[in-house]
Specification:
The chain is mainly α. The protein folds into 2 domains: about 5-105, Arc Repressor Mutant, subunit A (Orthogonal Bundle), CATH 1.10.10.10; about 120-205, no CATH class. About 50% of the residues lie in helices and about 10% in strands. It has helices at about 5-30, 35-45, 50-55, 60-75, 95-105, 110-115, 120-140, 195-205; strands spanning about 45-50, 75-80, 85-95, 155, 165-170, 175. A hairpin with a 4-residue loop joins strand 5 and strand 6. Helix 2 packs across helix 4 (about 60-75), helix 2 (about 35-45) crosses helix 5 and helix 3 (about 50-55) packs across helix 4 (about 60-75). The protein is globular and about 55 Å long. The structure holds iron/sulfur cluster. The site of iron/sulfur cluster (SF4) has 12 residues, from loops.
């Protein structure tokens, strides 16, 4: 069997664990997994429209709307008018929703312990590999745009000489390495298609013209 098959099998084993853990956590809080995911998204974003939540979670708008209605009924979320558009509304977390989201957002100890068994260089390689696979899924339209470095207008990959910190984040003006690549960053701002393509070519080593002068870096990693 091909390596791709074995990789897919390995990822499905991890996905199985995360799904069952997600169900367990949500069930303990008397939520469905979709309701739990909406609470976590709202905790990360502050507020959000139903359409944005549906897109982010790759679910249909009616599914997101039903889950939001249930969360409002349970007292975790409230709907308020969007100050930017009188015809639209935004979902806000209420205190009980914030508490539930906090419990839900914690990664399972077993998963963190498994990641901790990897050496630092293995963690960096895994993170870069995951970034490539997630970006590929996104380009194929299999998942929505993710708030990750690879699609961010602040990301300048491989512009520094130091192999430990070759990338640069213009948002915090700092150099960083593969081990700090973000897959869900609150400061992410989507790059234009041409910017994202150019950054991707550089990141994956398919661009031989790496001539940009690196900006001065601060010590603060993103
Ligand atoms: S750390 Fe955040 S802001 Fe900086 S490049 Fe990555 S996604 Fe963008």
């Amino acid at each position: 069997m091909s390596a791709q098959f074995h990789i897919a099998t390995g990822l499905s084993k991890i996905g199985m664990f995360l799904r069952s853990e997600g169900w367990r956590q949500a069930d303990a809080a008397s939520l469905t997994p979709t309701q739990a995911q909406i609470l976590v998204q709202l905790a990360q974003r502050g507020t959000a429209r139903i359409t944005a939540l549906a897109e982010e979670l790759a679910i249909t708008q009616p599914t997101a709307s039903d889950a939001a209605t249930a969360l409002i009924r349970k007292g975790h979320v409230e709907r308020r008018a969007d100050p930017a558009d009188a015809r639209a509304s935004l979902l806000h977390l209420k205190p009980s929703g914030r508490r539930a989201a906090k419990a839900m957002a914690a990664w399972p100890d077993a998963l963190l312990a498994a990641a901790d068994t990897l050496a630092p260089d293995e963690q960096a390689v895994l993170l870069k590999t995951l970034t490539k696979m997630i970006r590929s899924l996104q380009v194929q339209g299999a998942i929505p745009v993710q708030r990750m470095c690879a699609t961010c207008r602040y990301f300048r990959p491989d512009i520094h000489q130091d192999p430990a910190t070759p990338h640069h984040c213009d948002f915090v003006n700092a150099a960083f390495g593969d081990a700090q690549l973000r897959l869900d960053c609150g400061e992410h701002e989507a790059a234009s298609e041409s910017e994202a393509t150019a950054a991707w070519r550089r990141f994956t080593g398919s661009d031989a013209s790496q001539t940009d002068a690196p900006p001065a870096a601060t010590d603060e990693a993103p």
